[in-house]
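Q: I'm writing up a methods section and want to include an example of the input and output format. Could you take the sequence below and give the corresponding predicted structure tokens, formatted cleanly so I can copy it straight into the document?
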Amino acid sequence: MVQNVKQIGPQRFRETFGRHYEQFEIGDVYEHRPGRTITETDNIWFTLLTMNTHPMHFDTQYAKASEFGKCIVCSPFTVALMVGMSVTDVSQKAIANLGWQDIKMTYPLFAGDTLTAESEVLAKRESAKRPGAGIVTVKTKGFNQDGTLVCEFTRVMLIAKDGHSVEERVGY
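A: Here is the clean output for your methods example:
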């Protein structure tokens, strides 16, 4: 169990987040909360900030003629939200993201949908090059408010071991 608070003095506590490499167990599933209700503005801003010019994300009249009948959430936004939701549980103590694999968009999200996510630990191993770290692989799944799987991907991270994280070096 991850501690979410540490005592730093008499009657003084500091909130903590994340797991060191040693705290990951293969098969554990972390439910990432809170969820996030996606607004039309979120979707349009993300789409335009990333220069995605596909009208399915911001042109209501165009989207009405599609099989969905309305604008869909930009899929990289869905992935970005799921990664963000998972940080506290799986990558708060990461040294680096090593990659994302097998990203699958399984069902569309729309403005007004609420996204939740969970990550399962698939593998872990000691780093061959960094004695103060290990490599952790998780599969993250995102669901809409009805429990429908909307996205999944595998993520590989280099995670600090206990006593080797940046926050420990700077006193966080």
